[in-house]
Specification:
Length: about 300
């Protein structure tokens, strides 16, 4: 469990103790299937010690029994049951006998933007016997069986429906899912996450992003319009920012890299267009920016 957070683990000493983890990380998410003997897991820290700890864990029990305690609530999970807990805050996990579970690790900002007061849903059994919750539990179980069989890109695309279903299932606890602005904000975050991990691809365009997100380009542009921009402009500005960072000598690029090399690395294949766009954004040419050595904004 220390793969996921800084915790204290106590196992019942026995000759046949075992533990096994199958895990796949994709984008800023992780899906794991964990099998082990009887044990307890405790977190006492009150703040995340790294960005990777700053997340919620959604768990689906496949075998055995688990008791989750956090923030004055507790959930008893048996086969087929689900709950979430916050890896950032103190929590206690108790596993009885041999057990197996699927763990879906989601960054807190993503779920918090999808769901109002997500932190109030921790250590509460989810309704998975019917409706969206039932679809979610089946879906996560199927994803768990595909660990190592799918590419990171395929897993990222398949994870988005799971996140949406989780938000809807959690919203059902108190009879209210987060309002539409939060849902739109969470969707926009997922689109931005995809864009920022594919900026280097010269083929990145509205059609590619829409296909990967499972959304229409028109709807994505409506999301960006709320921020006063468009999808393609967002892509352009992010690429220019990456180039500027590299040209200033702080982006990891070697000083011998040419301006053209850096532009190509970040998806530009037309140097004239790159130079014009760069000057329009920063007020100087790429060559002048490199000579200055530090951003002038």
């Amino acid at each position: 469990m220390r793969l996921f957070a800084d915790v204290q683990i106590s196992a019942i000493p026995r000759h046949d103790f075992f533990g096994k983890v199958l895990s796949q990380r994709f984008s800023d998410l992780r899906l794991s299937v964990i099998s082990a003997s009887e044990q307890s897991v405790d977190r006492r820290f009150r703040e995340a010690r790294s960005d990777y700890e700053d997340r919620y864990f959604a768990v689906l029990m496949l075998q055995g029994k688990q008791i989750i305690e956090q923030s004055g609530s507790h959930a008893i999970l048996e086969v087929g049951d689900m709950a979430i807990y916050d890896a950032t805050r103190p929590h206690s996990l108790r596993f009885e006998g041999q057990w197996q579970e699927v763990v879906f690790s989601i960054s807190r900002p993503i779920l918090n933007n999808l769901l109002v007061n997500a932190e109030d849903r921790v250590a509460t059994s989810l309704a998975v016997s019917q409706g969206v919750g039932n679809v979610l539990s089946s879906y996560l179980g199927a994803l768990g069986r595909q660990i190592g069989q799918l590419s990171a890109d395929e897993m990222t695309r398949l994870a988005d429906p799971a996140i949406s279903m989780l938000a809807m299932t959690l919203g059902g606890i108190n009879g209210s899912i987060g309002d539409s602005p939060h849902l739109r904000s969470g969707t926009l975050l997922r689109v931005k996450r995809y864009v920022n991990t594919h900026l280097h691809d010269p083929d990145l365009d509205a059609a590619m992003i829409a296909s990967a997100s499972g959304l229409s380009a028109r709807y994505i542009n409506k999301l960006f319009a709320a921020e006063g921009t468009s999808l393609i402009r967002y892509v352009l500005l992010k690429r220019l920012d990456r180039c500027a960072h590299a040209l200033s000598g702080t982006g990891g690029a070697r000083t011998v890299d040419s301006i053209a090399d850096i532009a190509l690395r970040w998806g530009f294949n037309d140097m004239s267009h790159f130079s014009r766009a760069f000057k329009k954004r920063f007020g100087v040419t790429p060559r002048e920016w490199r000579k200055e050595g530090v951003p002038k904004r």
